[in-house]
Amino acid sequence: MANTVTSLCCVVLAAVVVVYAQRRSQTGARIQYERMGGDVTMQCGSLDSDASVTWKVNGTDVKALHREEGSKLILMEVDVSNNGLYSCFQEPDGERRDQINLRIGTAPREPVVTCRSNTYPKGFYCSWHLQHPTSIPTDFQVNVLHNQMPLEATRDTVHKNRCHVKFPEMFSSFPYKVSVTAINALGEASATVTFEEFSIVKPDPPEKVVATPIPNNVRRLEVNWNSPSTWPEVESFPLKYFLRYRPLIRDQWQHVELSDSTTHTITDAYAGKEYIIQVAAKDTEIGTWSDWSVAVHATPWMEEPTHITPTTEQDLPIETTPSQAPPSAKHNRCPNVMYIPMEEMRSPLFLVCTC
């Protein structure tokens, strides 16, 4: 039993050592960045150029188009499929001499930069992105100038390619200049945008849009919404709104522009038709319209159908039976009564009036 436990402990310890060695070899490897489409030369440490070595990639033989020249491995026309951990072993003892973590990518091109103020007059934010991915880690540097003075740009904690800037003053006539530089191991590229304060004001869409039918009115819908919560001073900087709506059966929108109200009653809806409704917002003096709000659906009030009581057996006229005597003529509204004998009928006797 003791030998079994000892053996098991040795196996576990060996596995731990292997895992540790693998992690150490991964972290200890040097990174080599190379351009897409070119040839790549990897040198096995500090060995002489005529040393005899064997190369592995991710623990297996190198199958990509390549050639070996002494202590060098040359890959031809590389792309991202050549990424991997390359190891070289010196012959004849097979001792590992070097590890290279190869990463293939491209130098960045000019980033696309846009700036917007959705919290006017507090500040604005700028976002950027690369139209062409680099396939390797790329960092960005941001510089903001206003009236030749640098402004602090705070990086966003959620959106990695976004920064926030506070307005140094209100209603400034001096333009802002924002420069973003993309940098990686293969190169760098910059883009600059210049703008005036008023041109980048754009609120977020209105929130909590609700459309409800009006009781007993088949052509009306009442629409309500809230100002965007990101807009800090609605009273000092009021917003106006743009509402659009259409029935689902049609493609053409109808539009209504409102001064500062956050409610509107649609009075020309088609009875019984489902509608789609959206709202946009804009500062009353400056900037541009926001994007449309989340679409809501609503149907005008629909009248309940008139209830029709079905006919029951209790509502049918009472039939006479053969044992009953026919009513006398003086109690019958019809003066002439004709009797049909039972043998000529398949149903019980009926009184037949001929007036």
Automatic annotation (TrEMBL):
InterPro entries: FN3_dom, FN3_IL27B_N, FN3_sf, Hematopoietin_rcpt_L_F3_CS, Ig-like_dom, Ig-like_dom_sf, Ig-like_fold, Ig_sub. Residues 37-88 form the Ig-like domain. Residues 1-21 form the signal peptide. Transmembrane segments: none annotated. Keywords: Glycoprotein, Immunoglobulin domain, Repeat, Signal. Pfam families: fn3 (PF00041), FN3_IL27B_N (PF24031). Residues 107-204, 205-305 form the Fibronectin type-III domain. Residues 307-330 are annotated as: Disordered. Belongs to the type I cytokine receptor family. Type 3 subfamily. This is Ciliary neurotrophic factor receptor. It comes from Umbra pygmaea. The lineage of its organism: Eukaryota, Metazoa, Chordata, Craniata, Vertebrata.
